[in-house]
Amino acid sequence: MKLFGVFLIMVKAMASHNYGDALTKSLLFFEGQRSGKLPPNQRVTWRKDSALHDGLEFGVDLVGGYYDAGDNVKFNFPMAFTTTMLSWSVLEFGKDMGPDLPYAIDSIRWATDYLLKATSVPGFVFAQVGDPYADHVCWERPEDMDTPRTPYAVSKKFPGSEVSAEIAAALAASSIIFKALDRGYSARLLKRARMVFEFADTYRGSYNESVGAWVCPFYCSYSGYEDELIWGAAWLFKATKAANYWNYITKNGIQSYSDGSFAEFGWDTKHAGINVLISKFMMSGNNYSNFINYADKLVCSVLPESPSVSVSYSPGGLLFKPGGSNMQHSTALSFLLLLYSRYLNQSKRLLHCGNVVASSSRLVQVAKGQVDYILGSNPLGMSYMVGYGSKFPQRIHHRASSLPSMADHPQRIACSNGHPYFESNNPNPNLLIGAVVGGPDNKDSYEDSRVDFVHSEPTTYINAPLVGLLAYFKSHPS
């Protein structure tokens, strides 16, 4: 009860934020993460073209896409999840984005153009570009990269169902976005999504076994690939309404979750997202299934006053789960809470966690509390989004941000020559506007050190769910 009391005090004390400004900046971040030939309308102008020969040695064009975090590797598993979440954000909250909607759509297309390339060779799905071990030895700008840009692919013989099915989900979700904007492109995305899903399902296996020597320990799959297959089928059903995908979901998607994974959602584990996504279809038909039951359990595992709460909260009210880069949990779970509150409202359902009533308005309040904490309503009075507010992280763990820009230092900075910039205590010379870092520790303390990558590194999959949250609160600030 003490925790709940502290949390309520924090919620009441929270000041209003400029969610529109934060939304604009959160989308700018994706422009700062772009790989490849930058477009004429690029707004993050201190970034320049990079990795223009990706895939060339294999005779395939793999130029484009996003760097996942503060390094210069393209990890397609988290990139695809980021794309799915950006698409879900636009699908649910695009009407709240106003003038930022075209930029949100651009951020999706930058990813899908690349994911189409990564799935363009029949029988192969490219899972990664760049040798992460060589890359992590260097501290250099993406524009200067001289480390191996080796592409790693899964295939029929060496399968990778996680990365393949997540790419299928991303392509299917984004096809819905483009249906009203570019029907030809939408059809191309959907056709590829079907093909890649069939590949993932037919040739089952974990990419840990196929390309694990290069994807691990960075983006190992710890939850298996079954959740990605159901996730991919769910998005294909949403995009097509085809009975075969619904049958696939109902046949394979009902699980006991004895390990508590019903409350997990992120680039690796999709269970909570599956249950929330499928629950919308179920509620609209008044068909109360295990998907709804487990979506309800997710809510009860997150609400701080619930008798079955399984997450922890810092004294200042930030949600915590085990593992690094904690803000990914705060944004992803808050996104699901906000969505589920809408579904509960639409179906006129009232949810109970034991003797606690979990009203839809309470779910919104908890999600808003997490967003407000990120934007500065916390014990340090610090925004964890670069460029938002007057106090924000200055030394983020990010190569391009921490090294002089090409305009200020046109000469090449070699691999080892970047380390003095990494070790320096000076603020980063280039503001990566909109980047949300891993965040404070569970006592609300933040060191602001680029060496401390667990807390100071931004990632695309922290920002992607936040885009939807900020769009909603921009239109519903109170």
Descriptive account of the structure:
With 478 residues, the protein is mainly alpha-helical. It has a domain at 33-253 and 397-431: Glycosyltransferase, CATH 1.50.10.10. It has helices at 2-13, 19-32, 76-93, 101-118, 132-137, 161-178, 183-202, 207-215, 226-240, 243-252, 271-284, 290-302, 327-347, 360-375, 399-402, 419-423, 453-456, 460-475; strands at residues 74-75, 124-129, 151-155, 312-313, 319-320, 351-353, 356-358. The strands form 3 sheets. The protein has a 3-stranded antiparallel beta sheet. A two-stranded antiparallel ribbon has the order 4-5. It has a two-stranded antiparallel sheet with strand order 6-7. The two termini are 26 Å apart. The active site is at residues 397, 448, 457. Its EC number is 3.2.1.4.
Order of helices and strands: HHEHHEHEHHHHHHHEEHEEHHHHH
Number of helices: 18
Distance between the termini: 26 Å
| Class inferred from helices and paired strands | mainly alpha
Q: Strands across the major sheet, in which order?
A: 1-2-3
Rg of Cα set: 21 Å
Poorly predicted residue ranges? 1-14
What's the CATH first level of the domain at 33-253 and 397-431? Mainly Alpha
> In CATH terms, what is the architecture of the domain at 33-253 and 397-431?
Alpha/alpha barrel
Shape: globular
% residues in beta strands: under 5%
